[in-house]
Amino acid sequence: MEEKVIEARNLMKSFGDLDVLKGVDLDLLKGENLVVLGKSGSGKSVLIKIMVGLLKQDSGAMRVLGKDVANLGVKELNKLRLKIGFSFQNSALYDSMTVKENLEFPLVRNIKNLSRKEKDKKIEGLLDSVGLPQSINQMPSELSGGQKKRIGVARTLILEPEIMLYDEPTAGLDPITCMDINNLIVQVREEYNTSSIVITHDLTCAKVTGDRQAVLLDGQFDAVGTFEEVFPHAEDKRIKSFYDYNFINS
Amino acid sequence: MTEKAEDRKPLLSKKIDKFFTGLADAWNFVRRFFKEVFIPPYEFKEVVHQCYRIGVESLPLIALTGFIVGIVFTNQSRPSLSEFGATSWLPSLISIAVVRAMGPLVTALIAAGKVGSSIGAEIGSMKVTEQIDAMEVSATNPFKFLVVTRVLATTFMIPVLVMFTDFVALMGSFLSVNANENVSMLTFFIQVFDAISFLDIISSVLKALLFGFTIGIVGCYKGYNSSKGTEGVGRAANAAVVMAMFLIFIEELLVLQIVNAIRMM
User: Locate the ABC transporter domain: which residues (chain A) (predicted)?
Assistant: First the structure.
């Protein structure tokens, strides 16, 4: 039986009168890339924010690496967070820090006994692997959207997480840069042996990066399976229209 | 009429609710500051960095303002005193005015505009661009790293800036007195220190600590609770200045009553 690194059971979350998640069940298996698709506002980002404890579910259970996230104390939650890399939609780079300082920030705060040389080596290695060694001393404001995403991914990888969560990795990028980011997601899984959840509404990204697809509709997962199982022959009109309106069909 | 009154009632009720909810939020924010400030890990390096930003970078503006205040206040007071042939009292008058009230007040108002708005905008922008969330998921306590350090820095640096303003304002005043009344620096400063008491200096420093805390906590609170994108950041910066200035005037009034009561004892 394959090991589950994330398990969500009957997850519910509302904001005021708006029910966003209405009983979500989800498993992420070790070593797989799971893509969560859905329209804007369907609760995709809410789901991964619950996984890292940024939001708390109203009811249901969320277990990450065997820990019940909602019931963890601050110290245990922080310990768990070090095993999860979260790549934000807008990269969320600290704009008062250089690229190097951005990468160094999680490192110096969580690993105390690293020498200057070891830190530099780690940072340079990561910048090489995301293809941006020349940006080390740049400020985030000097980077393009795609470069920011890459640095954001590099910053999450610096603590060598077991799980990667990508929130809309290709949003707002041109098609060529999108392809670069998609390839980076695949490369990260291969190089760092991570299990990942990719939140997107971009079907190209879903097809390239995902082993399995899960479509979030009306607060629940409507279809889960490989890309071929879920999309080309979908009977549900909402999933079909999702497929038809994407470039992948043209 | 009755219908209109009924229509208004929920709105008024909502506004009252919002006011008290805001008050409770602010209170919880202050309580959280006092809780987090004593719990390790301590962010000494960041406190020093913020002290540098708040203190050193505000120095030119504070110095210029203090200098102008000293000259203007001296020149404005001279005609009234000269009517009674009492221009020799100028150093004492300026000393009392600057040390007791103008120094702390001018410094705090300038700092509220410069530092308070910058803290509100910086933290607000970090909030809306998810940088605070990013800090949290990398196992760093953003409240401690962003809020506690900034509030400590403003609380420590405003008294230092006030002392600097006092000195620069008195130097401005001395230049004016020296040019018009031909008083030496030694005589001027002997009169200055004769006029003020230990209580004046202590109350000025304590008031500056309070103003510094207010500027920091209001800027951080407004920034930390900002929303609605860039518009929210602008609002946070603006509200940080307005609220801090308003509170500074109220605190000035309260401290004045307390110090006067002590003086009478």
Answer: 6-243
Q: Does B137 touch chain A (CB under 8 A)?
A: yes
Asked, for residue A166, whether it belongs to a domain, the answer is yes
Residue A51 sits in a domain of what CATH number?
A: 3.40.50.300
Where are chain B's structural domains? 45-264
Query: ipTM for the complex?
Result: 0.90
Asked, for residue A232, whether it belongs to a domain, the answer is yes
DSSP state of A115: -
State how many domains chain A has.
1
User: Is residue A131, in this structure, part of any structural domain at all?
Assistant: no
Over the stretch B91-143, which tens digit does the pLDDT of each residue have?
Answer: 999 999 999 999 999 999 999 999 999 999 999 999 999 999 999 999 999 99
Identify how many contiguous H helices and E strands chain A contains and give both numbers.
9, 10
Tell me the three state secondary structure of residue B22. Answer: helix
CB contact under 8 Å between A54 and B134, yes or no, is: no
Contact B136 A54 (CB under 8 A): yes
B chain contacts of residue A54, beta-carbon cutoff 8 Å: 133, 136-137
Tokens representing residue B74 in the block? 């001296």
Q: What is the mean pLDDT of residues B206-230?
A: 93
| Neighbouring-strand partners of residue A197 | A34, A165
On whether any CB of chain A is under 8 Å from the CB of B46, the answer is no
Is A106 domain-assigned? no
**Closest-CA residue in chain B for A53?**
B137
The reply to whether residue B138 touches residue A52, judged by beta carbons under 8 angstroms, is: no
Give the pLDDT of residue A250.
45
Q: Is B184 on the interface with A (CB under 8 A)?
A: no
